[in-house]
Amino acid sequence: DTEVTQTPKHLVMGMTNKKSLKCEQHMGHRAMYWYKQKAKKPPELMFVYSYEKLSINESVPSRFSPECPNSSLLNLHLHALQPEDSALYLCASSQERDPGFGGVGNYEQYFGPGTRLTVT
Amino acid sequence: QKEVEQNSGPLSVPEGAIASLNCTYSDRGSQSFFWYRQYSGKSPELIMSIYSNGDKEDGRFTAQLNKASQYVSLLIRDSQPSDSATYLCALRPFGNEKLTFGTGTRLTIIP
After folding, report:
1. Which residues in chain A show pLDDT less than 50?
2. Contacts across the A-B interface (CB distance below 8 Å)
3. Is B43 within 8 Å of A113 when comparing Cβ atoms?
C-alpha cells in the first residue's frame, strides 16, 4: 500500500482566514514533503521533514507554517494568504532507505491527492 | 541550462504504437530517476523508478537510463487512450532529499 491521504480536497479561504491542510501516511516513511503546484507547471518543493524534523525550507513565506506532530502526520498551517497562493498543494512521503552493501536504496516519493486551495 | 529538460510536447501517438518520452539532465551527481504520470487536475502518480544504467521494465512501461550520456527515457508499449497525460521526469542527486522535476511532456494517444 502506497497511500498518502490529504484533507480537505478543496478549500476556499479569504485573505484574513487561518486554515490548515492535513496529510497522513501509514507506510512507515521517514520523510514527508509539501509541494505547491500551479497549472501547467511541475510541483515546486516547499518543505521537507526528515525523521519529524524540518530539514528543508525552500525560502517559503512565513504565512505558510509546517508542522509534523508525529511520523505519520504532516500539517500546513495557512494564515493571511494572498490570491497568488491559490494552487494545488501536494503532500508526499518517501521511505528514504539507504542502500545496504551491494544493494539499491529506495527514495521513491509518493504523492497524496492534493488540496485544491483558492484564496479570495 | 535547465537542470532537467523535457520536450513539453504535445506528443501525439496513435493507439497501439510505442510512445517514447525523453529527459536529459545536467547534474552528473544524480543518483535516482523517476517518471511520474499526471492526469489533468490530479496529483502525480509514480510509475517508474530507475537507479542503474540500462533498462527496467514494468508491464507496458520501460525506463532506460544512460548516466554517461545523461539521459533517461520512458517507453510505453501498446499505447492506450488512458495513457494520455503529462509525464514528469524527476531526479535526485546523491545525498540530497530534493527531487528536481522537468517541466513535463504532454502525451496524447489518438484512438
Report:
1. none
2. 49
3. yes
